[in-house]
Task: structure prediction
Amino acid sequence: MPKKKPYIIDITKLTIRFGDYTALEDVTLGIKRGSITAVVGPNGSGKSTLVRAIIGLERITSGTITIDGAPITEAIGRIGYVPQRFSFDKTLPITVQEFLELTTVCRKKEHCKSDSIEHVLDLVDMTLHRQKQLGSLSGGQLQRILIARALLHERDIMILDEPSSGIDAAGERDLYALIKDINASQKTTFLIVSHELDFISKCADRVICLNRRLICHDTPEKALLCEGVANLYGPHIAIHHHHKDGHHPSHHSHAEG
Result:
């Protein structure tokens, strides 16, 4: 019996075309169970196409994507997804509790074992906000509620699209601390699309560099070297090391010109 690969998401020779346009070409990679993996690349590099393919929203031209060896159609209930933009009428009179209740109807009984609003609110440290109006939340608080929403029904894979977009520096620090806490306590696998290199260097343990093809897939220390980033973003992008409040040096993205 062949040994099972150590990947929860296995992508093999993935190509996606829209007419004459090739969004992704011959991408092969594996995402390890329990990892925090970031996807980086310039606009038009295929990051969103890759995510949409994993959650079954994009038709694959050739190649395969499997979740623990199963087709996407059989495993989609295991994936939680937080989109880059969540638009709603902020004057809508709906509380955090009511918003989460909208997602608690289960299609498959086996996905309801941890179907507890109280449980997920505790995970994202938002229990005290359950009766607040959704429209009154800050950007960081709303992101936490969207993560809580995606965690309902025992999702063991979480895909976040630009999760730090629109969040201030303090909120960003809280967000990557939250992701690391959930990853450690729940063993949740995270796949994060982001252009914030500082966020990635502190949060991720693996980085996928994508530009229609796979450029590299390695640790942040190796993947985010200046040369590797230049291949993705062009020669005017560099990563600088700096000290903040006595903390260890961290990566910081900087665009010149």
About this structure: The longest helix spans residues 169-186.
